[in-house]
Amino acid sequence: MKILVCIKQVPDMESKFKINAEGTWYDGIDLAWRMNEYDEYAVEQAVQLKEQVAGSDLTVLCIGRQQVQETMKKALAIGCDRGVHVADENSHQKDPFEIASVIAEFASDKGFDLIFTGMQSQDRGSAQVGVLIAEMLGMPSISTIVDFAFADGQISAKRELEGGIKALVKTTAPALVTCQLGLNTPRYPTLPNIMKAKKKELLSVEVADLLKVEAKQETAKIYFPEKKGGGLVLEGEVADLADQLIQILKDKTAVLA
Amino acid sequence: MKALLVAEYRDGQLLGSTYELVAFANQLGAESAMFLVGSDSALPQYDGPLYLADSGKYSEFNPAVHKQLLLDVIAKEQPEMVVFAHSSYGWDLAPRIALTLGAAQVSEVVEIVDGVPVAPVCNSKLRRQVKANTDRTVVTLQAGAFGLSDEPSGSPTVEMIDTDSDSAAQIEFCGYEEAEAGGVDLSKADVIVSAGRGIGKPENLEIVEVLAKALGGEYGASRPVVDSDWADHSRQVGTTGQTVSPKLYVACGISGAIQHLAGMKKSEFIVAINTDKDAPIGEVADVLLVADLKQFLPVLTEKVRAL
Ligand SMILES: Cc1cc2nc3c(=O)[nH]c(=O)nc-3n(C[C@H](O)[C@H](O)[C@H](O)COP(=O)(O)OP(=O)(O)OC[C@H]3O[C@@H](n4cnc5c(N)ncnc54)[C@H](O)[C@@H]3O)c2cc1C
Fold it and tell me: CA gyration radius for chain A?
């Protein structure tokens, strides 16, 4: 069974963001980078499937600068067999349609039976790429899954809907699923596996070789939202803060009465 | 400008998000038509043409078939914009439509400024204005971003639609599974103190729990805390958990993602404790205390007990 998992490297969301000189994206300098949270569940599910189906082969793909290889190494240490790094200095400027086109172009002649992606990225949050890849490849896709099972070529999954309700759905491989938070319990890479991962194949391809389309949209301007709420921000010693808060709660609420 | 609104229906009910689409079209001053796979027993209160496909026949969830039904209506109506809710139905169907139409899709639109859609970036820490390079666009709207000022009213002119592309069904929908019953009923609590990922480890849930008790309330949690099995799902606050509006909501180590805010922003008074002064929870908090919850909560609990 041939499996592909697509991951993205994103900044830690607790970072202090700055805007780049052009005003069109956040500045990539001085940020801590990590695997997109949704993709951690995708990688774990792909590795579990590989372990379930003997003789499987699992490729992890990531588009971006040289630095994304650090994140790819984590996926390799968790259990992916090989990595494909699509080298692109400007991946942050590409729209979901371009990103999906690049991945679909790569996957088109590889005969993957199952493709895993995160349901969205933490930075852009468009929730488009996975579904687009599947449409481009002409395979069924199930988005936002919180449960996944595979048997005899059949996929049974649960889609998460609003309010915690789930929809039970089935489809047949080849197919693509997009993974939601909580799908599984992502494992941590062990030290021996981190060492082993260093020897795994990590191929690099140029994005220009795979990109055959033009963007359908661009970010005209990025900015910090205006602070709307007139909320109070308090800093200082914890004991002082606690006293201040208690006074505020006494004044503004009835909960301490 | 003409907009086609893709209404939502689940388990025999029209979803309220449908009216957010109407509010959006009104705000744009757009002429609109509506598309729904649903039933004539739960029609939207809406003055305009409604293209209705029977969910009994085409299923409430069947992306390939719903796509075909919608594409037929788009071919007839020729809208400049196709509008979905940014929901489990909308974000699943919208890319399929956008790709076929060759249209730009702008996801999770929160507002329109000078005709340009604005979407959140990085957990709402940033915003971006999106310029589409295509004449036709597909948009999905963030839940709660657009709302009608009045109660919905009107009655649609219904046209039933059909497709013979049943063969395109690739996904079999086998029914719904309700959220687990049992656990606490957070909606009854006057005070909720919620733990977020900022608690760092499961042992620290206790300092949140004891503060909740000291304040005579219940403890809640953000999604990562529930996903990690540190707390029961019945305690999850947000779009995929509970919606609460207590007298006091205390968010401890919660960044304030839109999906969490949707479940608690109607609380009467909101206090946030966060080490990050710029955390988006500050947008809704009446008071943001910049502090490490591990140090702050025990001190606060002591002082509350001493009252
Ligand atoms: C379709 C969908 C549905 C979702 N439904 C829900 C839902 O129902 N409910 C929900 O909560 N989420 C939901 N989410 C997830 C949501 O997007 C966020 O990922 C989640 O809310 C983040 O939880 P958090 O704030 O606890 O964690 P994080 O975003 O990781 O934030 C942790 C916060 O803790 C702070 N912190 C760290 N250490 C400390 C410390 N020592 N003291 C004080 N503060 C500290 C950090 O500064 C940060 O702000 C959903 C997502 C999707 C896509």
Answer: 21
Around ligand 1, the residues with Cβ closer than 6 Å are A 13-14, 181; B 196-198, 222-224, 236-241, 253-255, 257, 259-260, 263, 273-276, 279, 292-294
Rounded CA gap, A87 and A84, in Å? Answer: 9
For a substitution probing ligand 1, which of B194, B237, B255 has the most ligand atoms within 8 Å of its CB? Answer: B255
Q: How far apart are CA B65 and CA B186, in angstroms?
A: 39
Residue A231's pLDDT is 87
B155: Cα within 13 Å, side-chain hemisphere: 3
Q: With an 8 Å Cβ cutoff, is B95 touching chain A?
A: yes
Name the residue ranges covered by the structural domains of chain B: 2-170, 186-306
> Is A243 part of the contact surface with chain B (CB cutoff 8 Å)?
yes
Question: What is the value of pTM for the model shown?
Answer: 0.95
**Which whole-number Å values give the CA distances from B53 to A3, B59, B152, B281, in the listed order?**
37, 10, 22, 41
pLDDT of residue B8: 96
Q: In this complex, how many residue pairs, one in chain A and one in chain B, have their CB atoms less than 8 Å apart?
A: 258
How far apart CA A58 and CA A14 sit, in angstroms, is 31
Measured distance CA(A87)–CA(A96) in Å, rounded: 17
What is the fold of B2-170? Rossmann fold (3.40.50)
Tell me which CATH homologous superfamily contains domain A2-209: HUPs (3.40.50.620)
Q: Do B277 and A217 touch (CB under 8 A)?
A: no
Instruction: Read off the pLDDT of residues A117-159 as tens digits, 9 standing for 90 and up.
Output: 999 999 999 999 999 999 999 999 999 999 999 999 999 999 9
B304 and A13 in contact by Cβ < 8 A? no
Query: How big is chain B, counted in residues?
Result: 307
CB of B176 within 8 Å of a chain A CB? The answer is: yes
The topology (CATH level 3) of B186-306 is Rossmann fold (3.40.50)
Domains B2-170 and B186-306 share a fold: yes
Asked if B42 is an interface residue toward chain A (Cβ–Cβ < 8 A), one would say no
ipTM of the shown complex? 0.95
Residues of A within 8 A of B16 (CB-CB) are: none
* Nearest residue, CB atoms, A234 vs list B103, B268, B287: B287
Mean pLDDT over A157-173 rounds to 95
Extents of the domains making up chain A: 2-209
> CA-to-CA distance for A219 and B65, rounded, in angstroms?
32
Q: Which residues of B263-295 are buried (b: 16+ CB within 10 A; e: fewer)?
A: bbbebebbbbbbebebbbbbbbbbbbbbbebbe
The pLDDT of residue A186? 96
